[in-house]
Amino acid sequence: MPKLKTWQFTAGSAVAGLALAAGAVTVAGPWDSGQRKAERELAAAQDRTGGAHHETRRPDPAEPAPAPSARSVLAGLGAPGAPDAARLGRTLGPLLDDPALGPLRTASVVDVATGKQLYGRGADTAMTPASTVKIATAVAALSALGPDHRIATTVLAAPDAKGIVLKGGGDPTLEKEQLRSLAADTARALRDRGAGPVSLSYDTTLYTGPAVHPIGAGNENLATVTSLMVNEGRTDGTRSGTGDRTPDPAGDAARTFAAELRSLGVKLTGDPASAKAPAGATPVAKTLSAPLSALVERTLTNSDNDIAEALARQTALAAGEQASFEGAGRATYDRLAKLGLPGKGLLTGAHFADGSGLDRNDRVSASLLTALLARAADPAHPELRSVLTGLPVAGFSGTLQTRYSAGSSGTGLVRAKTGTLSHINTLSGTAVGPDGRLLAFAFLAGDTVAPGPAQKSLDKLASALATGA
């Protein structure tokens, strides 16, 4: 059995709570991406909304104190040996039998230090994962493009200098402030070229296939999937979670850009029109998204469906596939297959119908999810680290902010991606065991009767990993 390394203990202690975050991150090094900053900003802004079908609630004044179980974690840092798999089975078995989880439930728990499965029940059975599929989406995108990749939104000038094109690169997080800056750069370039009045068109041809997710148009969980939009097509001021969406996100973005250009004195001939950029068009200005690592963290923390679908399409483009639901699904599968995950048949039965998990035709197994989490913790794959740092912290952030109370044994020690569809409830992430070991887990439940009891049962399972009882 491989000897436990210092980085693995450090990784576990970093999960122990926000009170320990500064010191833990200093030691952990590559784990310090955007998440700690994102958590501070999230708390400051009191932006507590969740992702698809997740509840939204304003912060309670009596929020949990940081890391109530930190002492046990720190005490366990020097503990030798591996977790007791037999004891873990005795602990998890009765909890997994809770009728609230319905008749279909699978589980996998892996010791991240060794990659050994400590507990499994139907672990290789592919089930509908709901939003936990975002773990696979994120791993595939990071593996294909790297954590520093940024998505560009570009302005192109036609060869005859009589028109410009706003070309979407697939960044759903594009903000109005970025469009304003892009307009300023464009206006400057046009003046330098001595251009007269120009037409403005917008190009969304990067994406192919259906633009409407199978859940249907007008759904508050997801905008029309297009390569050009501002703030995920939201019209109600929200920045995450459910919200009202425009039926024409690309057209709205182009009209906003046109207004910015006109305010800077650029004369436009007519209104913006949808059109493919002409051959020979040259770039005159562009704006970039945040790094892919930050987009992954935002996706997982808030269960952001729009970014998840964008990540899947970026993976498709990197693989030379069409940037469609089908192309993204094939690219995700192929990229995960190239990771060389331990064990045989982890992708057996896997199917990626979308990147967000809103499609019930998605299929993954509990063992695949835990293998992906363990690979993200592997020091040989630092490019995947934001998959772990993006997981919501129990009782503190994202879709787990309200699911763990101050007295819960899992508060601050569990980080996990939630998944909720009608009659589908899932949870997959990491937990620090009582011996200081970092465990990866996945619990998938199907045909559940009600979300509330099922979520409580899943949270108990994750907390049991932290307490060992």
Number of strands: 10
Shape: elongated
Query: What is the helix fraction of residues, given as a range?
Result: 25-40%
Task: Please work out how many helical segments DSSP would assign.
Answer: 14
Strand content: 5-15%
Question: What would you call the structural class?
Answer: alpha+beta
Lateral arrangement of strands in the main beta sheet: 2-1-10-9-8
Radius of gyration: 23 Å
Q: State the order of secondary-structure elements, H for helix, E for strand.
A: HHHHHEEHEEHEHEEHHHHHEEEH
Q: Low-confidence parts, pLDDT < 50 over ≥5 residues?
A: 1-80
Q: Give the biggest sheet.
A: 5 strands, antiparallel
Q: Which features would summarize this protein structure in a list?
A:
five-stranded antiparallel sheet, alpha+beta, 469 residues
What does this structure look like?
This protein is an alpha+beta fold. Helix content is 35%, strand content 14%. The protein contains 14 helices and 10 strands. It has helices spanning 6-14, 21-28, 35-45, 70-75, 85-96, 133-145, 176-193, 249-263, 292-302, 305-318, 325-337, 366-377, 386-389, 451-467, and strands at 104-111, 117-121, 152-157, 163-167, 199-203, 273-274, 282-288, 414-421, 424-432, 438-446. The strands form 2 sheets. The protein has a 5-stranded antiparallel beta sheet with strand order 2-1-10-9-8, with helices on both faces. Strand 1 (104-111) and strand 2 (117-121) form a beta hairpin. Helix 7 (176-193) packs across helix 8. The radius of gyration is 23 Å and the shape is elongated. The model is unreliable at 1-80 (pLDDT under 50).
